[in-house]
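User: I'm putting together notes for a lab meeting next week and I want to include a structural view of one of the chains we've been expressing. I don't have a solved structure, so I'd like a prediction I can at least talk through. The sequence is below, exactly as it appears in our construct file.
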Amino acid sequence: MKSYTTLLFEQNGKIGIVKINRPEALNALNETVLEELSSIFDEIEADDSIGVVILTGEGRSFVAGADIAAMKEMNAIEGRAFMLKGQAVMQKIETLSKVVIAAVNGFALGGGCEISMACDIRLASEKAKFGQPEVNLGIIPGFGGTQRLPRLVGKGMAKYLIFSTETIGAEEAKAIGLVEKVYPPETLIEEAVKLAETILSKAPIAISACKAAINNGLNADLPTGIAFEAEASATPFGSEDRIEGMGAFLEKRAAAFKSK
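Assistant: Thanks for the context. Below is the predicted structure for the 260-residue chain, given as C-alpha cells.
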C-alpha cells in the first residue's frame, strides 16, 4: 500500500482500516483527500488480501464536511468540477466489490454524511453527529447527498434534514435508517472489526454478488431488479464456495470457503 499524506492505513488479517487523517481540519474533504481516497480504494479493489474495509476518521471527527476555505475561492465551473470529483469517489466506494463499513466516530456533516452513505453499512459512536448543512453556505449537498439520503431515510425526512440543516445524534440517525448500529465510542472500532470478521466468514463470491444485486436493483423497477438478481446468482452457483457451503450445511460442519 502506498504512503498517503491525509490517510492512515492498517491491515488486520483480511480487514483493511482506512482512517482519514486531517484532525486539525476535522478531517474535511479537500482535493488531496479526495484524490488519495480514490487512489487507496483502487489499491484495495486490486488487493486480494483485503476482504472487508472499515472507513473511519482520526480524532473527534469522522469527516466534518468538505473544505470550506478551499471552496470559497471556487467559481461555478470549478465548484462543479469539485463536486464531480467528490461524486466519483463516493461512487467508487459504493461500487467496490468488497464490503465497506463506515465507523462514524464523530462529526459526519456535509461531505462526511455523504461519504458514510456511500458505504455499505454505517456503525456510529454514541457521540456521532449527522447533518447536511450545505444550504447554510449557499450550496447544495453535491457529493451525492440529495440522492442517497432520500433513498436511505425517505423523501420527506431527507428534505427536512437538507432544508432545515438540523444536526442529529446517532440514536436519531439510527431511528430514521441512516445508521444501522450505535455503540459506545470506546468499542466502535472493535464492533466494526467483529462485523467485518462475521462478513469474512461468509462466502465472499456470494457477498460480492449480493452487493452488486442490491446496488443495481435499488434504482430499478421490481422486474428489472429481479432480473439483476437472477444474473447475479449465476456466478455463486457455479463456484466452489457453493459446493462447500451446501456440503458443510448437510454435513453439519463449518464451511471452509476457498475463495477467501
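A couple of points you could mention at the meeting. The radius of gyration is 19 Å. DSSP finds eleven helices and ten strands in the chain.

User: Perfect, that's what I needed.
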